[in-house]
């Protein structure tokens, strides 16, 4: 299990924090189930971090090694879909 700090644009950050977005598409840099991501809210309009952070746990990974029905057709090489659980 690794702890990783990741930039998250405000609209994605707020949706994940609010429990409406339970996944994230990312470059696949060796994520493992159980990794903890510290998402740092980034205001992409003003080009700066807001200081807000949330922790999420990676609960499932869809990629070319562990595909779903359409992932090989729609997922760019080198990318993955992370299923997330917000930690309290």
Automatic annotation (TrEMBL):
<dbReference type="InterPro" id="IPR039440">
    <property type="entry name" value="DUF3850"/>
</dbReference>
<dbReference type="Pfam" id="PF12961">
    <property type="entry name" value="DUF3850"/>
</dbReference>
<feature type="domain" description="DUF3850">
    <location>
        <begin position="7"/>
        <end position="82"/>
    </location>
</feature>
<protein>
    <recommendedName>
        <fullName>DUF3850 domain-containing protein</fullName>
    </recommendedName>
</protein>
């Amino acid at each position: 299990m690794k702890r990783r700090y990741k930039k998250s644009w405000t609209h994605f950050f707020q949706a994940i924090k609010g429990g409406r977005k339970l996944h994230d598409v990312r470059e696949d840099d060796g994520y493992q189930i159980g990794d903890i991501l510290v998402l740092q809210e980034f205001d992409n309009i003003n080009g700066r971090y807001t200081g807000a952070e949330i922790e999420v746990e990676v609960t499932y990974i869809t990629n070319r090694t562990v595909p779903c029905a359409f992932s090989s057709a729609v997922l760019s090489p080198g990318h993955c879909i992370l299923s997330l659980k917000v930690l309290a």
